[in-house]
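Protocol step 4 of 5: obtain the predicted structure for the target chain.
Materials: sequence only (see below). No template structures provided, no constraints applied. The aim of this step is simply to have a reference model before the mutagenesis design in step 5. Sequence pasted as it appears in the construct record:
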Amino acid sequence: MPSPTDHYPAGTVCAARDEWTPVPGMTGVDFQACVYAKSKSGKALFGVTVRNTSNRQMAVAAWVGYRMSEREYECAPPFRQDGVVIDPHAAWSSQLTQCIRTIEGAHRVAARAGVSEDGGNPTAWRAYSGGVDITTDGRAIPVPYPR
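Step 4 output (structure tokens):
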């Protein structure tokens, strides 16, 4: 059974310019990697939102990892969720508490995520969220993107 939708808090940064990445081989299903970092919290949380714009129910597999200061990491424990069923014209979001990283010092963080048809390999097709700069004093500042 899929986990319940986690309503992401204000300040969550998903895809740059609110772009959605289509899932190969699945018409009407796309996704965004998302990162949340609250200033002075010392933590960054990573997730994925998948939406189904089709007229039929879809089952997907989702994967989440992250990027910190130009290096890529897996969640601990690794995050993969199979059997996520999304109703027509609905969206599903992973729980941010399933992938958390403690941040010490200054770093730029971003989520990376992948989605596939259920039973497929969600790590084969990846997308990144926009970034968040964590400063040495603990502030979390979304990275501006040109329009």
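Step 4 remarks: The longest strand covers residues 71-86. Residues 1-5 have pLDDT under 50 and may be disordered.
Proceed to step 5.
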